[in-house]
Structure prediction request, 177 residues.
Amino acid sequence: MIIHLHKTLAPAVAALAILIAVTSARADYAPSDHSQWQADRVVVVKSERRLDLVRDGQVLRSYPISLGGRPDGHKQEEGDLRTPEGDYVLDWRNPASDFYMSIHISYPNDHDRRRARAAGRDPGSMIMIHGLPNDSPPTRTDYLDEDWTDGCIAVSNQAMMDIWLSVADDTPITILP
Prediction:
């Protein structure tokens, strides 16, 4: 029996199938106490282009990242191509985003909104950790060799799958300069 999916559903179904497959595969080598590989914090060091998954103060795994097109400094407003800096939370996820999976960062917080409002600006929103664009070949490395996002934190698709499986919603994230 052949099943045809509408083209808008295909990425979501593919992501779900991969998530199930990787979760099953990971169960084969993960300790029975999953807390040993589950991160309780994410730390991003923008100057080093690195994202760390942390548990009990110890780095579990690190990944190279790409940032917004103007990575220096804290995000000030919508469209400035900067990645925010500060303390936030990973508050929801999108398995069917335009990029290979995405996890939302709770930017802007109250301080960001007040600062932008005082300057007469829109602080922006929709800052995510995500993989590569879905319309690009997954092995393309040119995306990971430069800063190209609108302010998000981009990782390889393989890293995105690991991050997705290693952090729960409401995990704190600290983004350092």
